[in-house]
Design goal:
Blueprint: H1 20-23, E1 31-32, H2 44-56, H3 66-80, E2 89-92, H4 95-106, E3 112-117, H5 122-129, E4 133-138, E5 140-141, E6 147-148, H6 151-158, E7 163-169, H7 181-194, E8 197-201, H8 222-226, E9 228-232, E10 246-249, H9 253-265, H10 273-285, H11 287-311, E11 316-317, E12 325-329, H12 337-348, E13 350-351, E14 353-354, E15 365-369, H13 374-389
Parallel strand pairs: 1-13, 3-4, 3-7, 7-8, 8-9
Antiparallel strand pairs: 2-10, 5-6, 9-10, 11-12, 12-15, 14-15
Length: 390
């Protein structure tokens, strides 16, 4: 691992570059702090391999080499003490297509899929597109504004008739929890008790704030590995989501064969040549970059939290253990999350996410993307404060 220092303060003008995050804004005055997309340049190791690939000047269908599998195996073994077997891995275009394909492979139309809410909004889309019903189990919102799992409620939901799957988020988007090994063991215990398979979305796993450690669900025990399907990618952590590359792991040959067929049926069974190169470069050479990025994101969170605590003490901020997404309780304003989101947009020209999109338990909250240079975080926070103090 090299000792290069990376400049996350550099502002890259993304307006008018066909960037969803910026170009869906109706005005250049708006600061977008919504979709989970970073404003930092990709790691130099990624840019270097993409330039080399571009120089080849032929961009046909890509064959996935053994190095792709090795990059996953070595990264998770080295970084997270999880030894993945080569035969467990399938590749695909992204984690959302992966989740959709996995649900297609292991669920039956009309069945129930349990989710812990508030949770990533695309979970609901994937469940419903597979003709299943989401069963929402609200996370417990604690007095210190953190979240924990209501295991009694989870047990009841898992025991419901026609419930086969828990769609799990680890780390949890949007509340920023980095689940502990003890919590994961309890979740797996309840799933095994009720005959429910775990599908774990672990796309934010590299975004670890100081003092917190990501634990792969499948790594906690052999029983968990046998009962878990993991969906992952370096795309969020390394800001390469647009390059479309992800992976799925399952150690069950029958389930893996069904997943492979579902990937074919859903037509998401390939990776483009640029995504392939970026994926391998991230896992083979990106460790120093991600370590520095996490320190920087933690600094952004501290800045926003301190500014809001001072000027908007009625906005309660959830501790951020993982990801780069701040989760803010705005219920003391007496306004709905949609009203707060609209007021912030209208009065401060800052675009944030309405918490209600993440399930019923998200009402009264907003989500703020902090993966942007610190000067932008400071400006956006100042604008939000000004708007909400009026």
């Amino acid at each position: 691992m090299n000792n290069d220092k990376f400049d996350f303060d550099e502002i890259v003008d993304r307006r008018h570059s066909h960037a969803v995050k910026w170009d869906k804004c109706t005005s250049d005055e708006i600061i977008p702090m919504w979709v989970a997309d970073m404003d930092f340049k990709a790691a130099p190791c990624i840019i270097d391999v993409l330039r080399k690939r571009l120089e080849h000047e032929v961009f046909g269908y890509a064959n996935v080499p053994e190095e792709f599998y090795d990059s996953i195996i070595n990264w998770f073994d080295r970084r997270h003490n999880w030894r993945i077997d080569r035969n467990w891995i399938e590749y695909t275009t992204g984690v959302v297509p992966a989740i959709s394909a996995v649900l297609r492979a292991i669920t039956t139309p009309g069945g129930n899929v349990v989710v812990l809410t508030p949770v990533y909004n695309c979970f609901f889309t994937c469940i419903k597109s597979n003709e299943c019903t989401p069963l929402e189990v609200p996370l417990t919102y604690n007095s210190d504004y953190s979240y924990s799992i209501d295991f009694d409620a989870l047990d009841k939901a898992l025991a419901c008739d026609n419930t086969s799957t828990l769609l799990f988020c680890n780390p949890h988007n949007p509340v920023g929890r980095m689940w502990t090994k003890e919590e994961l063991l309890k979740v797996n215990e309840l799933c095994l008790k009720n005959g429910v398979t775990v599908v774990s979305d672990e796309i934010h796993c590299e975004m670890m704030m100081p003092g917190h450690q990501y634990t792969p669900f499948a790594s906690i025990s052999q029983e968990a590995q046998d009962n878990c399907i993991t969906c992952g990618s370096p795309s969020k952590s390394f800001n390469i989501a647009g390059l479309q590359a992800a992976f799925i792991t399952s150690n069950n040959p029958d389930i893996k064969a069904k997943i492979n067929q579902a990937l074919i049926d859903n037509q998401v069974c390939s990776i483009n040549p640029f995504g392939l190169e970026a994926f391998m470069a991230a896992y083979n050479h990106g460790e120093n970059w991600i370590l520095q990025l996490n320190e920087y994101i933690a600094g952004n969170f501290s800045l926003m939290r301190d500014m809001m605590n001072k000027e908007l003490p009625n906005f309660h901020i959830t501790p951020m253990e993982g990801s780069y997404l701040a989760w803010v309780d705005v219920t003391p304003t007496g306004m709905s999350s949609a009203q707060v989101t609209q007021k912030i947009l209208d009065d401060s020209k800052v675009l944030v996410n309405d918490g209600a999109m993440y399930g019923k338990a998200g009402e009264g909250f907003i989500r703020i993307n902090l993966a942007t240079p610190r000067s932008i975080v400071e400006e956006a926070t100042q604008r939000i404060i000004k708007a909400m103090k009026l």
